[in-house]
C-alpha cells in the first residue's frame, strides 16, 4: 500500500499541534466502519533510547492467525512530548505499512484516537494518512474522566472529556483492568468496542496489540545485536 505524508514535518511542538488541528477536519466520524473485517492489523512501537522498532502485524480477523508482518527499525523522528507521540512513530509506522502486500480492513493502534487533548491521537493521524478504518486501545487513561465499569467481560463506561464522550473504558476479561478504546477514523465507537472484544478472547489486550508488541520488541533486540 502507498502512503504519502500529507503535511510538512514539524520541527517544534507548536508546529506539531498546528498539524493536528489542521488534519482533524479530515476525520470521518460518520462511517460506521467494517462490520465483518477479514483482516485486522495491529501496530506498535518499541523503544531503546532514541532507537525504535515499528511493527505491523496483520491477523485473520476470525482465527487470529498471522497473515503478514513487517518490522522497521530506525530512530525517533521527534522529541517526546505528551500528546505528540504520533510524530515520533509515524515515519517508521508508515514505512512498515507501505511494505505490506496485504491491505488490512481495520487497524488497531496501541494508543489513542479521539481520546486526546486535541481529539487527534495516533489512531486519528494514521487513519487520515492511510484512509483506513482505525481505532486506538490505550492501556491507561490519558485524558478525560470515567466511572469504573462493571467487573464482567464486556462491561463499559463512557470516557468523557469537556462534556463530550471521546471513548469507552472497556473490560475485556472478567476482573482485569479495563482498556481505553477510542475511535480514530472511519469507525464508530460501538463497532470499535465490538471488534476489541472479539480480538481479546483470552487476554486483556487485543491479539493485534500483543502480536505487534512481540514483533517490535524482537526487531529492536535483533537490531541491537546486529
Whole-Å distance between the termini?
Answer: 29 Å
Instruction: Please tell me the overall pLDDT.
Output: 95
Output the number of helix runs.
5
Largest sheet, order of strands side by side? 3-2-1-4-5-8-7-6
Morphology: globular
Low-confidence stretches: none
Count all strands and give the number. Answer: 8
Provide the helix percentage: 25-40%
Radius of gyration over all CA atoms, rounded: 16 Å
Helices and strands, with pairings:
Blueprint: H1 13-23, E1 39-48, E2 51-60, E3 66-75, H2 86-98, E4 106-109, H3 122-130, E5 134-138, E6 156-161, E7 164-170, E8 179-185, H4 189-198, H5 207-225
Parallel strand pairs: 1-4, 4-5
Antiparallel strand pairs: 1-2, 2-3, 5-8, 6-7, 7-8
Overall description:
This protein has helices at 13-23, 86-98, 122-130, 189-198, 207-225; strands spanning 39-48, 51-60, 66-75, 106-109, 134-138, 156-161, 164-170, 179-185. The chain is built from five helices and eight strands. The chain is globular, with a radius of gyration of 16 Å. With 226 residues, it is of the alpha+beta class. The longest helix is centred in the C-terminal third of the chain and has 19 residues, at 207-225. Helix content is 27%, strand content 26%.
